[in-house]
Design brief:
Shape of chain A: globular
Helix content of chain A: over 70%
Largest interface: A-B, 41 and 47 residues
Radius of gyration of chain B: 20 Å
Shape of chain B: globular
Largest sheet of chain A: 2 strands, antiparallel
Distance between the termini of chain A: 18 Å
Order of helices and strands of chain B: HHHHHEEHHHHHHH
Number of strands of chain B: 2
Largest sheet of chain B: 2 strands, antiparallel
Number of helices of chain A: 13
Distance between the termini of chain B: 43 Å
Oligomer: heterodimer
Number of strands of chain A: 4
Structural class of chain A: mainly alpha
Helix content of chain B: over 70%
């Protein structure tokens, strides 16, 4: 009950933000929060594979980036008026681009997952990284779609005839998608599927002897995870109006993992807190010093070596000592 | 024909480099069970220390001991300060802690040397190409790198198969706990292996310094390829690192050299160049994916 109440307050605050921010002299805040929400979706998706399913994927940038590129490529063909492969017309309708991005990244996750899940441990980490790098190399070399430079989405996507160039409109779209996504994620984690996934993570042999085939459920989780990351990537393209091969780079996979560990692995709120902490840190440290990566690196090292469970763990410990 | 031979030598050079990096990484991987993303940073440390010492003293050869000492010392500090705490952790913590080390090393290097690439001048003796075969000119420094790499491979083979430390290393990569149970000071062994791996990375960095530009981020470029080598070769296997390193080096160089030319028969020049470059950089990852699907533990897994 308390959790539902708290979620309501958070969503209400987020909804009020675009109107409050200029008044308190922080007009840039909504954009920052929008980015946090997008990364929260991406990190929570990765957490579904990594935290809930125990699959350490070092290649989730592949799905984030492919979602990014789906929006960009559809826009490109819409703007040029040339169908993709000669028969798929481009579009700038958000109601089409988002589902297509989710679908494409889901299919990609199905292929990568089916292959990668044949291995485990270090090999799994490396093979997911390898697939992401392949995509990265592929898109960097595609001169049609900008190569190194990416695609600039000049005219933003539209939803019900409303252009999403408008900062407030796109903010509310992102907020709505994020709320829906986290409601959905909550149901997934609480379902029997979520329980089975947790069981597989804790003891695969035990689940097998209970008659549950781990491979199938891990693959489902991996696909769902990829779809979520693709959704986040597509939102990022809509929001930034720019599609960049950087979204496919291995450092992006690393950043998503950092968010999860900053927030707390395998928890529901962890990735949200982690995405917020990472994005805010990055923005404010970069404004403070050119060498912000040094500070970030040291901080991350301290968190990994010194804390158990990131911010979420700290909060839990604090609450535990208070009670 | 000379072009193919020349590219073959270039491939061998790259392969030897990959081997030097992968040999250390695979031992660290296999024996301590930690994923060290910061291995590329040690390569960078070697390159910077070597280039700096060589240009400060004006003597190219003084760069070599500087690179070796710097990378070994930094490696041992990293082992004592960070790695030690990671041996018992899961892979996720290891990936993130060493990712943090990359950020730290890169920014420290920017603070010390700035963002401009440093170029290391070779002595004339080594930079004037010599004629290996009629029509095949090749810089002697590159030949020297290949030679050094092969000598290191031989040395490592002897070290691992003929000495007591090597015996412990082999035992450690097969069954870590058993070695510890038999009363071996495993912590000292870990530090030694980490130091050795760092030294090899520093050696690779110094030797590559005159060939590529010495700049921040150079470590990450070779790091990912090194991981591919380690995984294909089989975690913990130096033999695997050698075979996979040379194979990948030749494959990668060959694809980069000849793919655009082949594609140019099919499409326009600039498109062919771009797509060729893309396909060539995908090549090694594709090979890794294929190998892992056939042999999930790599070609020569150290553990049974």
């Amino acid at each position: 009950m308390r959790r539902i109440f708290l979620s309501f307050i958070v969503v209400a605050c987020l909804a009020a933000l675009p109107f409050v921010a200029p008044a308190i002299g922080q007009p840039a805040l909504p954009s920052l929060v929008a980015r946090v929400m997008i990364y929260a979706i991406a990190a929570a998706s990765l957490n579904l594979a990594l935290g809930a399913g125990g699959m350490v994927s070092f290649g989730h940038a592949a799905f984030f980036g492919i979602g990014n590129y789906v929006v960009g490529i559809l826009y490109y063909h819409h703007a040029e008026g040339v169908p993709l492969f000669g028969f798929i017309p481009g579009t700038d309708q958000l109601l089409i681009t988002l589902p297509v991005a989710i679908l494409v990244s889901g299919l990609l996750a199905l292929v990568i997952g089916a292959l990668a899940l044949r291995t485990g441990g270090v090999q799994f980490i490396m093979i997911t990284l390898a697939f992401a790098q392949m995509l990265f190399a592929f898109f960097v070399s595609l001169k049609t779609y900008g190569g190194d430079d990416g695609i600039i989405v000049r005219n933003a996507n539209t939803l019900f005839g409303i252009g999403l160039r408008d900062k407030t409109a796109v903010y509310f779209v992102i907020l709505a998608v994020a709320v829906l996504y986290f409601l959905w994620l909550n149901r997934v984690l609480g379902s029997s599927f979520g329980t089975m996934l947790a069981g597989i993570r804790q003891n695969e042999k035990r689940m097998m002897s209970l008659g549950i085939e781990p491979f199938r459920y891990k693959l489902y989780a991996f696909v769902l995870s990829g779809m979520g990351a693709g959704l986040a990537g597509a939102l990022m393209a809509v929001f930034m109006r720019f599609v960049s091969p950087d979204t496919l780079a291995w450092t992006k996979s690393g950043e998503l993992m950092i968010m999860i560990i900053l927030g707390g692995v395998g928890t529901f709120v962890g990735p949200i807190l982690g995405a917020a902490a990472f994005t805010l840190l990055q923005t404010y440290l970069a404004g403070w010093t050119e060498h912000w990566q040094l500070v970030l690196g040291i901080l991350l090292l301290v968190v990994v070596l010194g804390t158990k469970g990131g911010i979420q763990g700290l909060l839990a410990r604090f609450r535990g000592s208070a009670a | 024909m000379t072009l193919i031979l020349e590219q073959l030598l270039n491939g061998l050079l790259y392969g030897v480099m990959l081997f030097l990096m992968a040999a250390g990484l695979t031992l660290i991987f296999g024996i301590m069970g930690v994923i060290n993303l910061a291995h590329g940073s040690l390569y960078m440390v070697g390159a910077f220390a070597g280039a700096w010492a060589a240009s400060a003293t004006g003597n190219f050869w003084l760069g070599l001991p500087a690179a070796l000492v710097a990378s070994t010392v930094v490696g041992i500090i990293v082992e004592l300060g960070v790695m030690r705490r990671l041996y018992e952790r899961d892979h996720l913590d290891q990936v993130l802690a060493t990712f943090a080390l990359i950020l730290i090393f890169n920014e420290l290097t920017v603070l010390l040397f700035g963002r401009q690439p440093i170029f290391l001048q070779l002595p004339d003796m080594l930079s004037q190409p010599i004629e290996l075969l009629p029509g095949l000119l090749y810089p002697p420094f590159r030949l020297l790198i290949i030679l050094v790499g092969l000598l290191v491979a031989l040395g490592l083979y002897l070290l691992i198969n003929r000495t007591r430390i090597g015996m412990l290393v082999r035992a450690g990569s097969t069954n870590r706990d058993m070695v510890r149970a038999l009363g071996v000071d495993i912590r000292l062994l870990y530090t030694l292996i980490f130091g050795l791996g760092s030294m090899l990375a520093g050696l690779a960095g110094f030797m590559m310094a005159p060939v590529v530009s010495v700049q921040v981020g150079m470590g990450e470029q070779i790091l990912l390829a090194t991981f591919v080598v380690v995984v294909i070769g089989g975690v913990g296997s130096v033999k695997g690192a050698f075979v996979a390193g040379i194979t990948l080096g030749v494959l990668d160089t060959g694809l980069r050299a000849f793919m655009p030319g082949l594609l140019r028969h099919l499409m326009a020049g600039p498109d062919a160049d771009a797509l060729g470059a893309g396909i060539s950089s995908m090549g090694i990852y594709l090979l890794m994916a294929i190998v892992l699907l056939v042999q999930p533990k790599g070609l020569f897994p150290a553990k049974g």
